[in-house]
Automatic annotation (TrEMBL):
InterPro entries documented for this protein: GPCR_Rhodpsn, GPCR_Rhodpsn_7TM
Gene Ontology biological-process annotations: neuropeptide signaling pathway
Cellular localization per UniProt: Cell membrane
Protein name: Delta-type opioid receptor-like
Highest classification ranks of the organism: Eukaryota, Metazoa, Chordata, Cephalochordata, Leptocardii
Coiled-coil intervals: none
Boundaries of every G-protein coupled receptors family 1 profile domain copy: 35-293
Residues that span the membrane, as ranges: 20-43, 55-75, 95-113, 134-159, 191-213
The keyword Membrane is annotated on this UniProt entry: yes
PANTHER family noted in UniProt: CHEMOKINE-LIKE RECEPTOR 1, NEUROPEPTIDES RECEPTOR
Length: 335
């Protein structure tokens, strides 16, 4: 189906809005693709980066990269107002996009679980964790994400619909036989996506942060002022990056899921342009993650300097003079 034969006759203001959304989405896609490829390359290139936390970082970068592979299809759809890639690409787009999205959310959650274990049980966690176990956990999260995405993988279809008073070819996520109850199918899909892909991970991660804060306060009551400050700094380093990753997740994907939730539970009319903007913003989460790694990962910064500036690797690690539990905090800081 050619774009010229199927695209809408758009007004100037509509073209401006769609082109602006295209520019924003394309920028996120380009930055995210380059950044996540760089993160994965550095973890594979430098042996000292192959740690348990970085296994989770690597897999999160992989899921972010997979999400960005379908960005051109979605961006083009919102730019021209039509799905021009055929039914096969519709099925592939929905399968890759939602599987990667669920995987990213699940991986961030298990990553935060590992952060909590480091704070709550540092010595036991040090003995029990390994790169291989972390890799198995990440693989299981990808499998779980694929299972969670089955309703979208098996119900994607290209249909002709009336959108805003215009006939458009769109990629939908329900069987044609469901067209007798399209409202139910659409609302159920949106509610399922928002609940499993946003509300549950957000609630789970918020609960983990509350537990971490309570654990740190209990530990502070039994330590001297000097030890308390030293371990507070180390614990902050352990939790800072996951906290910023979760904040990026909420800011970038929250509007998309709020849009879905409102469409699922109410009949409030929301302009199509809201959806056109919240979906490119969704890709901002995948673009911001590698920026967060670069700004907050000390060892990651060292590897970047070594890779691009040919600087020698740093000698030793900071905080070598702290006690065993605190030194484990420092050692387990995201690389």
């Amino acid at each position: 189906m050619s774009t010229s034969n199927s695209s809408w006759d758009l007004s100037l203001s509509e073209k401006v809005l769609r082109n602006a959304g295209t520019a924003v989405g394309s920028m996120f896609a380009a930055v995210g693709t380059a950044g996540n490829l760089l993160v994965m390359f550095i973890i594979l290139r430098f042996p000292r980066m192959r740690t348990v936390p970085n296994v989770y970082i690597f897999c999160i970068a992989l899921s972010d990269l997979a999400i960005l592979t379908v960005a051109p299809f979605i961006i083009h759809f919102y730019r021209v107002g039509q799905w021009v890639f055929g039914p096969g690409s519709c099925e592939a787009e929905s399968c890759i996009k939602f599987t990667s999205m669920f995987a990213s959310f699940f991986l961030v959650s298990v990553f935060n679980v590992q952060r909590y274990q480091v704070i709550a049980h540092p010595l036991e966690t040090r003995r029990r964790q390994s790169v291989r176990k972390a890799a198995v956990i990440c693989l299981s999260m990808f499998v779980l994400a694929l299972v969670a995405n089955l309703p979208f993988c098996v119900t994607s279809v290209v249909v002709e619909e009336d959108v805003g008073g215009r006939n458009a070819t769109v990629c939908r996520y329900f069987w044609p036989e469901w067209r007798s109850v399209p409202k139910f199918a659409e609302k159920a899909r949106r509610l399922y996506l928002t609940s499993l892909g946003f509300l549950l991970p957000l609630s789970f991660n918020f609960t983990l942060y509350v537990l971490i804060i309570r654990k740190l306060r209990r530990q502070d009551a039994f330590r001297s002022a000097a030890t308390r400050q030293r371990e507070k700094d180390s614990a902050t380093a352990v939790t800072k990056m996951p906290a910023f990753m979760t904040a990026s997740f909420v800011v970038c994907t929250g509007p998309f899921h709020l849009y879905n939730f409102i469409r699922a539970v109410s009949d409030i009319h929301i302009s199509e342009y809201v959806g056109m903007w919240v979906k490119p913003l969704f890709f901002g989460n995948s673009a911001l993650d590698p920026v967060i790694y670069a700004l907050m990962g000390t060892n990651f910064q060292d590897c970047l300097k070594q890779l691009f500036c040919r600087r020698p690797p740093p000698k030793g690690r900071p905080n070598d003079n702290v006690n065993e539990q605190s030194s484990f905090y420092a050692m387990d800081v995201i690389e």
